[in-house]
Amino acid sequence: MKDFMVYISSDEVDTALLLKKTLLVVIIIAISILLSRLTQWLVRKWTDEEIRTARYIRVIRTLLILINIILILKIYFSQGRAFSIMVTLVLAFFALAVKDLIVDIVAYFYIMIRKPFSIGQVIEINHVIGELVDIDFLQFNLSEMGDLTTAMTHTGRYISIPNRFIFEHPVFNYNFNDPFVMVDISITITLDSDRDQALRIAGKTAYEKYESMIENYDPEAVEHFLNKLDSHDERGKPTLRAELTNIGFNIYVQFFTAYDEMGKNKMIMRNAIYDAFNQAGIKLPQTYSIQLD
């Protein structure tokens, strides 16, 4: 900064010319921002497909950035000393945030090469679930999806997440190769209940509900998912286990479902098993609340 002030006050430099060039750079950046917004508006008018729109906007944004860099270099390169000092200033300011920016850019290329997710896929990262709609050099944008009542639905909110988060948080991809995910539910029965009977009832009920669920899915997609499970020595049909706790036995049921029906199908499975236990006289622990005066 000291060198720059000395340079500005020296007689060797056309200060007015330098300021004019700086003003020209500001104007170029402002025009680029207006062009970016105008092209985004035109693209959205031209196509209603969100994925295609995001791709076009990303390409236009990248081109504008490259054009800006070329123009700025062209403006300052004509005067070598002014250009070198401007670069020094830019690097000084850039150093304040260089770590996060570099990691974001590295993460961008990692995403492009390894493809842990792509446009249109539903992911969860840092407790945020959403459909991926856009990726750029510094961040990716999600269309948030709500916490599952009857199906996974969009909330209408868009969330921007820094690219570096893929190195800092686990990424859950709900439909990377298949639209199915494994889920589980649990119901607790009392210690004096017949554990083996509970397992038989839960298994029979779970299998019946499982059969009715997969009837609505694409048979080829189901077969592909089951083959993938078989390659890992895992079962696609419902599996059960019982676990002893201090108040009873937890009966766990694991099954697969479409990722966008997780909430609905877990509710259906849990309610069906609860009703079957109730009809068979299998008791569930009572919950008590204690109020301290």
Automatic annotation (TrEMBL):
Ranges for domain Mechanosensitive ion channel MscS: 100-175
Sorted UniProt keywords: Cell membrane, Membrane, Transmembrane, Transmembrane helix
InterPro entries: LSM_dom_sf, MscS_archaea/bacteria_type, MscS_beta-dom_sf, MscS_channel_2nd, MscS_channel_C_sf
GO MF annotations, alphabetized: mechanosensitive monoatomic ion channel activity
Topology in the lipid bilayer: Multi-pass membrane protein
Gene Ontology, cellular component aspect: plasma membrane
Keyword Glycoprotein included in the entry's annotation: no
One Pfam family matching this protein: MS_channel_2nd
Keyword Cytoplasm appears in the UniProt entry: no
Location relative to the cell: Cell membrane
Transmembrane segments: 15-35, 56-77, 83-111
Name of protein: Mechanosensitive ion channel MscS domain-containing protein
Organism from which the protein derives: Falseniella ignava
